[in-house]
Amino acid sequence: MGRALMIAAVKGLPPVIRLVIFDLDGVVYRGDRAIDGAVELVADLKSAGVGVRFATNNSTVDRAAYVARLGRLGITATRDEVVTSTSATIQHLARHAADVRRVLAVGGRGIADELSAAGYEAVAAADAVGEGYDGGSLDRRYDAVVVGLDTAFDYRRLAAAIGAILAGARFIATNADHLYPTAEGFLPGAGTMVAAIAAGTGVEPEVIGKPQPAMFLSALEASGVAPQEAVVVGDNPDADMVAAHRAGIRSILVLTGVADARLAGTLAGERRPDAVAAGPAEVQRLLLGSLS
């Protein structure tokens, strides 16, 4: 990890920061456009020697695709600097579910691809329709069902997932976000698919992504940074702020995604950030003001 950043005294934030963890959707970009000031903020943090990681609940593509997407926006990143809810799920399976080998993946192709690259026999739900609850066999075919955002989710994929879980497969959600921000507004998140599957099975999933702290803890471990030397920058109080709190990391809420100023003023408990910023430019002033 690079140099520590000594920042001006900002109430609620650490005096020394070695790592900044960014959410992506609604913080760094919306759709195919960078949020104003985000590219400059990341570049300036790296120039100051501060480590940067990107942690996203969006599991539709693999980490290499996120590196390419960031590159198109002008942000240089490596695969190791990106943590997705899928990569965190793979770590969870390796540590806590050694018996899982065959997995039904509900979501974008990125979930099945990353699971396969990690050595699992992963079958995309798109290729499994007809096997399960829609009239097919309910024989045990999968050790786990892993669910993320699926923009082609339909009745047959729902049926396949329900059939596998009723036959004994573990039910794992990469994340449970109800909405995610795009350039056109908010769209249904993975949590809507997770809720439908839970309703059909009566089984509550193991949730890996934010608001659980696994993704942030993974970033800390890989960076060799203590929680008190890191800051999370996110837009979702229910995901980013709660996960940061549970990981012991201070947080900045930006008002470029899920939350607005009215909501920010009402937040309490785990949802309450340590600082609020209108956007990346204000985050830059908070973290780098003493260097300007």
Portion in strands: 15-25%
Number of strands: 17
- The portion of residues assigned to helices is 25-40%
Q: Provide the spatial order of strands within the biggest beta sheet.
A: 7-6-3-15-16-17
Distance between the termini: 23 Å
Q: Describe the sheet with the most strands.
A: 6 strands, parallel
Radius of gyration: 19 Å
Query: Are there runs of 5+ residues with pLDDT below 50, and where?
Result: 133-139
Averaging pLDDT over every residue, what do you get?
89
By DSSP (H or I, 4+ residues per run), the number of helices equals 10
Quickly give the structural class.
alpha/beta
Shape: globular
Q: Strand-and-helix sequence, N→C?
A: EEEEEHEHEHEHEEHEEEHEHEHEHEH
Using brief descriptors, characterize the structure shown.
globular, five-stranded parallel sheet, 34% helix, 292 residues, six-stranded parallel sheet, 21% strand
Describe this structure in words.
With 292 residues, the protein is an alpha/beta fold. The protein has helices at 38-47, 63-73, 85-96, 109-117, 155-166, 190-201, 214-223, 237-247, 261-264, 280-288, and strands spanning 5-6, 16-17, 19-22, 29-30, 33-34, 51-56, 82-84, 102-106, 121-124, 144-147, 170-173, 179-182, 185-188, 206-207, 230-234, 250-254, 275-277. Strands 7-6-3-15-16-17 form a six-stranded parallel β-sheet, sandwiched between helices. A five-stranded parallel β-sheet has the order 9-8-10-11-14, with helices on both faces. It has a two-stranded antiparallel ribbon with strand order 1-2. The radius of gyration is 19 Å and the shape is globular.
